[in-house]
Amino acid sequence: MQLLILFITGLAAGLLSGMFGVGGGVIIVPALVFFFGMTQQTASATSLVALLLPVGILGVYEYYQSGKISTDNIWFGLVIALGLFAGAFFGARLAIELSSDLLRRMFAVFLVLVAIRLWN
């Protein structure tokens, strides 16, 4: 049952990632906290493990084939990936120093702020 929940979580994250560009923080992390009782730090780290592989390559291919993104967009994404590389390191170092409760609350505030910004 645990493997099925993990697979469904990944499937939902993949679908939403393909549609909206979200997945790890919005789907995977909350699912790991709620369904598996992980701390915020453990859930974030587990989400990063899932994202280590080029899991979005098929989605990128579909968008490219349909003409929705160009080679320039791919280069933009690769430059963003360089920032993610460094940001994930420093973000993990910071998250390790914070309490799980504080980190969870900060994450909730972040999601609310993003929702408010997208609503307007």
UniProtKB/TrEMBL annotation:
Membrane topology: Multi-pass membrane protein
Gene Ontology CC entries for this record: plasma membrane
Membrane-spanning parts: 12-36, 42-61, 73-96, 102-119
InterPro entries hit by this protein: TM_pro_TauE-like (IPR002781), TSUP/Inactive_protease-like (IPR051598)
Keyword line: Cell membrane, Membrane, Transmembrane, Transmembrane helix
Native species: Chlorobaculum limnaeum
Family: Belongs to the 4-toluene sulfonate uptake permease (TSUP) (TC 2.A.102) family.
Pfam family, one: TauE
Protein name: Probable membrane transporter protein
Domain of life, source organism: Bacteria
Subcellular location: Cell membrane; Membrane
